[in-house]
Amino acid sequence: MDDNAAVTKLLEEVGPLLDPAAISYAPDDQSWTVSIDAETLILLAFDEGGGALEFVTPLGAVPDASAERAHEILLRFSYLWRETGGLYAALDDNGDAALLYRRPLAGLDGTQLNNLLGNLAQQRAVWADVLRTPPEDIESVVPDVPPFGGIRV
Questions:
Q1: 64 CB contacts (<8 Å, ≥6 apart)?
Q2: Could you give phi then psi for residue 58, rounded to 5 degrees?
Q3: Half-sphere exposure of residue 111, counting CA atoms within 13 Å on the CB side?
């Protein structure tokens, strides 16, 4: 079974567990979109060279009024990638924020993927709120981040 088929099989296992609104596959760029609800998308792509799944969950635009503080918090959070198990934040070409994570495909099973997608959806909600109203200190946010490297199972 090739890697794309393996990812598709894992997502088929996750479907009944996570009960997302939709899971779609784009064969042109070999990527998947998991729609958790109307606000939460998780994009997956397989990095053949690295043997890893790449996860991106868009957070949306950073409000102009708090952009400087929000960008500082996102940068500080990304610096803590070891504490977060590899979860980090970035800005896309439009300046919109997103959370990103990479996980080797080898050894990943449906239950772990389900938990990972659930954790990402939860963090997306937390970080969308953080960007709307940035806190004074990042320490108030980081303790809420699950250890993605260990994936809570």
A1: none
A2: -65, 140
A3: 2
Query: Residues of 114-136 as b/e, b for ≥16 C-beta within 10 angstroms?
Result: bbbbbbbbebbbebbebbeebee
pLDDT digits (tens, 9 = 90+) for 3-36: 778 888 888 888 776 776 788 888 888 899 998 8
Q: What tokens appear for 92 in the block? A: 């896309």
Cα 112 to Cα 94, 96, 99, 103, 115: the distances in Å are 32, 28, 19, 11, 5
3-state secondary structure of 41: strand
Q: Give residue 151's identity as a one-letter amino acid code.
A: I
Whole-model pTM: value is: 0.85
CA dihedral 17, 124, 22, 102 (to 10 degrees): -80
Structure-block tokens of residue 76? 């500080």
Instruction: Tell me the backbone φ, ψ of residue 53, rounded to 5 degrees.
Output: -85, 135
Residues 113 and 14 sit within 8 Å (Cβ to Cβ): yes
d(CA 88, CA 35): 20
**CA separation for the pair 76, 69 (Å, rounded):** 11
